[in-house]
Hints:
The complex is a heterodimer. Chain A is of the alpha+beta class.
Amino acid sequence: MAEDIIGKSVERIDALAKVTGDAQYVHDLELQGMLHAKILKSPHAFADIVSIDTSKAEKLPGVWAVLTGEDVKQYKIGLYLVDKTILAVDKVRYHGEPVVAVAAETEEIAQHALELIEIEYNELEPVLDVKKATEKDSPIVHEDLGEYEHMEGVFFPEPGTNIANHFKIRKGDIDDGFAEADHIIENEFYLPQVNHVAMETHTSIARWKKGRKVKIWSSAQSPFAVRDLLGKGLGLPHESIEVVVPYVGGGFGGKAGIHFEPLVTLLSRAAGGRPVKFVASREEEFNSVPVRQALLSRFKTGVNEDGNIVAQEIEFLWDSGANADYGVNVTKAAGAAGCGPYEIDNVKLDSLTVYTNKLYGTAYRGFGHLEVLWATERQMEHVAKKLGMDPYELRKKNILRPGSRTITGEKLYEHSGSVGKCLDEVAKALNWDQKKEEPSAPHKARGRGLALLHKAPAMPTDVGAGALLKFNENGSVNLTLSLVDYGQGTYTALAQIVADQLSMPVDRVNVVWENNTETEPYDWQTVASKGLFISGNAVIDACKDLKKQMKEVAAGPLRASVDHIVLEDEKIYVNHHPDHYIEYKDIGMGYTYPNGNGIGGPLMGRGRYIAQGLTNMDKETGQGLPALDWTFGAHAVEVEIDKETGEYEVVKMASAFDLGRAINKQNVIGQIQGGMVQGFGSAVMEGYQFDGEGHIRTNTFTDYKIPTTMDIPKDFTPIIVETPQVDGPYGARGVAEHPMISVPPAIANAIQDALGITIDELPLTPENIIEHLENK
Amino acid sequence: MKRTISLTVNNRPYTFEVDDRKTLLEVLRKRLSLTGTKEGCGEGECGACTVIMDGQAVTSCLILAVEADGTDIETIEGQSIDEDISDVQQAFIDEGAVQCGFCTPGMVMSTEALLRRNPNPSDEDIRVALAGNLCRCTGYYTIIDAVKNAANKRGGKK
Ligand code: FES
Ligand code: FES
């Protein structure tokens, strides 16, 4: 039985609830006496708040609470750098920033109250250009940067500037490297801010309780991070906060960390403890909720005639927008992968988090890697072009392999996974060694492109998670853990692991869906593609603990040593007497002898796991061991472009990932397809637009398009490569984020191959293509 | 202004007073507690709120409740009785077409309407019929497979 469960496409445990509409999201929850919150948002990108008059709103019947920055200014919130206030205080720093919040009996009353509020602003010159923001005479977005708390020794803000963090890598000797190079190639790359577009917008409910306690229901990826940051931010002890997370309608990083939970908490307190619900409208989702940062990259690459890359100097300017509480870590984590999956001996890399007056940055699937690999994989194409070398050969020559050292000095092994295998798989799928197919019409052109990727979880060095297993009376088990399954399918994989470990059918494993910080063991966050790895190991540990207890209790009635006791198909027996057994259901709550004596008591398996051996990186050189595991991947794309209109179609695509071991094939394929299409959106259509004053121009689905059924590549082949990870559960490593990384350069490289144009700015729209063709 | 409307939802007749500015979506979710129908945008752009009205798939966030007076509405809740789910729902499960699930009720309703209108849809028909239903998780491949799977099974029944 056991072998069959791991790797099998077991039906998702949440599928029935979801196809029937039975699954309840925070959107669907209503509490007795619940009030509705609305927020008034900044119409300016940068301005002093001169005055706020809320008196008329406060008098409106049905209004229970009105809060302004003045009421909440003592509270600061932030994950890695504590730079956020709950509402704008004294200044607004981006268009869409929440300024006043109202809680009222109905949404209509709350909306009416907002209309009665008068605010006077004194507009300031906004900082909109990330390059200019780093110049000496730039206006400063956060004058108090020097006072903000942050993780010391990990992040390095530069007070008096707009630089919230400066991360450096120094490997080898960059001057020697360039001196040795036959060619030096320099380029600049850009990509704009992008929205997560989870289909469920951010929603939170809070109920303030007597004794300075609060219960929160939230569409959050990380219940414990919400609890921790809320507790620290509002000065509440952890045990007074309960965070509940029911079904969540997608996250992609956008629901990591903390969002509207502090606001609804304070509104509920101000409303005398009536529960308060805030549902972000789609417009607010576009202009008040954080986004993926924009990135400007400068690359200088030294390469020898034979294609060997000997030196690389990189500057990343991350447009973090008005806050950098999460953005500083994107800068660091993606900086640590800044050269792509290649071995380069001499590297100088500077990765800067830069404040501007735009919507602020946060985690987004890939955590900076889609952004940096947009640059590295385009730069490889420039290098190949300069040398007249096949891009496949150039990559093959430089990739990381067993024995290579990454740019942070980490040595890779055979079991670390193989980018080379992924590259070969996708090249084969597109017949890279054969001639391209002819275009379907004379005014069309065909091109093929490749791009590689790698990513390790971006997380603190000491991330851990727990898992608890409890028997039910009928011998089934409940698994509780605070990793959140907001669509990835991890709970189904964990159920498979329990079923295999305990030798029971998977439908006898109930993974408790709703998350609750009061009853579940700790997990840091559900991010970074570390869920299955860390929690999978914790679950295996819990199973071991439970099995040990089962054997110990069974040893009495079976009159045998625990060493000879076997657990199989929900039965416990001594190995040579399989017919003389005790069923799980007769031991889960303790065993009862025929005479009535009971032993054992209810059995509970406790499991835990923590990342092992990881280190912080050196401040000056970036050297260290930050990577839990590396998942490598590759994409190959074939496009056909209309040379007159710039319209194009991805006619064929293949993507391969070395994910160690697929626990559930169907769900893994689903992650790859969904991730690829998100990357495809970033590549071909998505991106925020701002006007000259910093106003967001893309805040509805009419202006901000995401891929639909009409847009996706028709012929897509996902490929699973399995080089087992030594310390991963069953050899597995994460693959949740990776499929979207490097999709944009794969397509841009195919466009370059078809038309000979080099586009280094996203998105790759037909207009962008035509413009480049005209300037060719 | 309030108006009295009568409509059938999942074969159950209702008559009640409603504010004439309320949408059908609000009435379904808040008044009738049918929260299986989701709101993803409130602007007719995402399809999460899709229901079947007199046999046609419609975005209920764009329809005023008073416009639904006298109509027959089907929502996701009407597609199953206990464990007895529709062939479309079963196909979504079998093909792994569900991730976060927020788009799923709308997808199922759009599919149901399509298959009643066109029992043998081509790939292109499916793409067109679902073009107004956004999904950020799946990339649509498994959803398209689920529609084909359901169509095949339904065709087989004939
Ligand atoms: S909620 Fe109706 S279309 Fe989005
Ligand atoms: S499954 Fe999440 S939006 Fe479709």
